[in-house]
Structure formats: C-alpha cells, structure tokens
Amino acid sequence: MPTIYDVADRAGVSTATVSRWLAGQPVRAAEAVRQAVEQLGYRPNQTARSLKSGRRGVIGVVVPDVTNPFFASVVKGLEQASRGFGYRLLLANSDESADLEAEVLQDLTGRVDGFILAPAHEQDRAGAQLRAAGVPAVLLDRELSDGEDFDVVLVDNEGGARRAAEHLVCLGHTRIAMINGPGDTTPGQGRRKGFLAGLAGKDQELEPAYDLVGNFREESGRQLALQLLASPHPPTAIFSANNLMTVGALKALQDMRIRVPQDVSIVGFDDLLLGSLLRPPLTCIDRPDVEQGALAMRLLLSRLADGVLDDPRRVVLETRLLVRESTGAPATGRTSDSGSTSEPNRRLDSGVTTGKRPSALTAAGVRTAEGR
Prior knowledge:
It is a single chain. By secondary structure, the protein is α/β, with parallel strands linked by helices. It has three domains: 1-44, 434 Repressor (Amino-terminal Domain) (Orthogonal Bundle), CATH 1.10.260; 54-155 and 290-317, Rossmann fold; 157-287 and 320-354, Response regulator (Rossmann fold). Helix content is 38%, strand content 15%. The chain contains twelve helices and 13 strands. It has helices at residues 4-11, 15-22, 30-40, 46-53, 69-82, 98-108, 126-133, 157-170, 186-200, 218-229, 243-255, 289-306; strands at 58-63, 88-93, 114-117, 137-140, 151-155, 176-180, 211-213, 237-240, 265-269, 283-286, 314-317, 320-323, 352-354. The strands form two sheets. A seven-stranded mixed beta sheet has the order 7-6-8-9-10-12-13, with helices on both faces. A six-stranded parallel beta sheet has the order 2-1-3-4-5-11, with helices on both faces. Helix 9 (186-200) links the parallel strand 6 and strand 7 (211-213). Helix 8 runs parallel beside helix 9.
C-alpha cells in the first residue's frame, strides 16, 4: 500500500507539501501531487488524520429532494470536486420539509466538517443551526432569508424564465400559462419574477387563470396541467418551472391526447436526462448543474483550508434557452411581433441555442455541443 512518502517521492516534493495538498491548502506543485496520488492509488489514513487535525473527513450534504435528477447531477459535481482532498459526502434528504431539515442538521452537527445545504424554504431556521454548528457552510441553489453570511451558488433563475416567456411570445402565443414552484423558495421567486418580466416586455400579462403554483413534484405538475387543459380557454403554451413538474405536465398532455407543439407548446426549466430523446424533444432552460455542485464544493474546501472569515461569496451561474421541438407557433397561425410567422426551432437569440444540449455554459456567446 503506497504511503505519503511514496507520493512525495513520485511528485518530487516534501511530505509536508503532500500533507498540505491533502488538507486542501494551495501548494505550488499541486498538479504533480495530484498526479502522484492518482497514479499510486494513494488513500490517506482518515483515522490518523482525524486524530491529528480534529477533522472527520466528512461533508454533510442536505438537499430537498434526492429523487430530483437535478440534485443527482449536483451531487455528482460535489463528489468530483472533493476527490483527492480526503473528504467523503454524507447525503441527506429534507423532502422539502423545514422540520425534517432541522432534524437532519441537528443529527449531522458534530459529525461533519462542513455543510452544503439546499434549503427547503427561505424562511426556515437552518441559518441559525448552521451558525451554531460552528463549521463552514455553503448554500446551494436556494438562499435563506437570514443567510447573508454564507457563501451561496445560484443560477440566473430570472434570466432563464424571462427568456422562456420571450420565446413563447415571439412564436405568437398570447394564452401562456406558468406552473411555478413554491413562492417561499429562491427558484420559485426568481422564476416567477423573470417570467412576468418577459411577458411585460412583450406587452403581455400572466392571466390569473394561467398562474398556478405547484410543489416542484411530478404529480403537482400533472394535476395543474390537467386543470389548465380543462379550463374554458386552455392555454396554447405552458412554462413549467422545474424538471419534475415538466414530466408531470407532459404526462397530462399525453393522457389528454394533446399534441405537442401543434396544440400546446411547452418549455421546462432544467433539461431532462432524456430531454433530447423525447418526441418531440423538449425545449428547456438549461443550466450547468454539475458545475454548480463542483463550484459549491470548491468554495467549501477553500473555507476548510483557509479558516479565514472573509466576506461571503455569492455566485450566480448563467442559464440558456435550449430550443428543441416542443415549442412552435399556435395552431391559429398567430405571428410574432415582427409580423412574420415564427420559425419554432430555428430561432437563435442572445442566450439561446438550438439542437443538442451544450456540454459547457459560459458567459460569452452560445455554444452547441453533444447532449448528455
């Protein structure tokens, strides 16, 4: 079994340098050490390290729904970024419940070196619990109303939802519905605000009958879509504010034998794992989910390494409208604002890409690459 001395010899550095790298501290020969660790298959003795440093080598990760593919991708990013630093993840599910979240945080306190938390709600007591735990914490995807002293990694919820609204209006839709998530969550607030702004910018409003709120779960998306389809004047387009509710809405459309996009266009927030393989492929707001998790982990590791209480960092990653084939002009043949018939799957605006899912999202330009 390789030892730290073997790693140091292979990398051409001292054992102290290897030890600092394993602790997450910056070192000049970081790449050489990383390669030596991987080549030798070195695994530090966690028990010995814990006794010496007082650390446990465990990071607590609490998410609101472990069945949501988005959080699965986030956890993948967390795990990738933590490799080589001697930490293991302890994953817990709050089930979108502030009470269960409080129990989980209490149970993990004293057993982990840090927390990564996607809060169930903004107005819960998680902030006080994290402070009392006395270890670094990073908020992921959602903020806390009293969490201004924590690092946080978000996505541009407003911008993404605004692009969805503008896309549907430009296709000629006027009866546009939104199936949103809870208003006491960061995504629910941001996506509603952005969608309303996108409609207002095109001189449209969200009619009360088309303004529905679910719980980010598949069944709520299905039930609310059925409610919309049963109305006297059903919408010709639906924006669903998360992936699971989009799945539910698609099931409702299928059950009612509603054609997509001939009868109803649909846009979802978050790409589905098989979104490009659906028939028709799903138009969606895409975001860098794995990158979001990796960045949250890097922020936490930097806190664990430095132990410095500097200003909290708030990072907002960009979203993109990925136009596929689930959106098109309404059956009445309405025209876009320019007066010409919309081209549903060939429009390329700022922040919009067509075809396959991007493998990387950057702030500059639009990139088309292979899908999942």
